[in-house]
Amino acid sequence: MVAAAGYRRWPRDTAHLSVLTAAGHRGRGLARATASAAVAHALSRSLLPQWRARPDASRGVAAALGFRELGTQLSLTFRPPGT
């Protein structure tokens, strides 16, 4: 497999997208093609596609598909004291 995309249904009829492209196959439009299909599938089921992109490349694919940035996301990892 060189590229895949899909979504998980979240509350309020949201489709949270996930897109993966194998490192050796990036830059060929595969992420855009697979993500476009996932977005179309979600829309056909009256879901609102959501793309949470942090890496610049992912943000570029999202922008190419018409997504707009509306905010930022902060991810934290908990480390128990003493670890």
Automatic annotation (TrEMBL):
It comes from the Bacteria. InterPro entries: Acyl_CoA_acyltransferase, GNAT_acetyltra_YdfB-like. Its EC number is 2.3.1.-. The keyword Transferase applies. One of its GO terms (molecular function) is acyltransferase activity. Keywords: Acyltransferase, Transferase. Pfam families: GNAT_acetyltran. This is GNAT family N-acetyltransferase.
